[in-house]
Amino acid sequence: MDRTPRTINSTAEPSDLSEDHDREQDEEETERREDKEELERLRREEVEKLRMGMEELRMGMEELRREMKEVKLWMVMEELKKIKEEKLRKELEEKLKSEKERLRKELEEKLKRVMREGQGRELEQKLRGEMEKLRMEGGSMCNIS
């Protein structure tokens, strides 16, 4: 649209001048309306972009929350696993200790019986060797890590 000022023809009829003026006003009004429509279209586009960005952000936050819950669950499961392993280790150590004590008493009883029955020095030394061997093995077995 040409915005250069027009020179008014002094010989023109007053009705011609009025028509020119009306046409200029119509053109300006059309231009303002088109500008307003363009601004509204741009505003709607920006609003839509923002809405989509907010939706992506919301979805990202939800995904992050899910991942955090999964990590927390994994951490709890790992801690539970450690607790169970520690409990099992202690139970096994206790059983081993108990079994060692039972075998020690059993060997002592056999040794006493052999000595009571007088079955000789050789058997006594063999049983003492077994007890010492058991004591050595049992000691190393209790140091389970």
From TrEMBL:
Residues 18-38, 122-136 have a biased composition (Basic and acidic residues). Residues 1-38, 122-145 are annotated as: Disordered. Residues 1-13 have a biased composition (Polar residues). This is Uncharacterized protein. It comes from Acipenser oxyrinchus oxyrinchus. The lineage of its organism: Eukaryota, Metazoa, Chordata, Craniata, Vertebrata.
